Amino acid sequence: MNVLEKNRVPWRTSSRSSGNGNCVEVGPTAGRVAVRDSKDRSGPVLVFPPTAWRAFVAGVDGVRPD
Hints:
By secondary structure, the protein is of the alpha+beta class. Helix content is 27%, strand content 27%. A hairpin with a 7-residue loop joins strand 3 and strand 4 (45-48).
């Protein structure tokens, strides 16, 4: 993902974030889910298919994905 693409992503931080700086930001992009470190916004971005992201979130929440 290049810098221009990163700047177009509507990034958001989890509502469960405690503000201690150990957070990630997530945003949709081109049918995928982009994830970055909130402390290093110009750093690397991981990009996942939506199904993989849903499975990850379900695992964190302790709920099995559909």
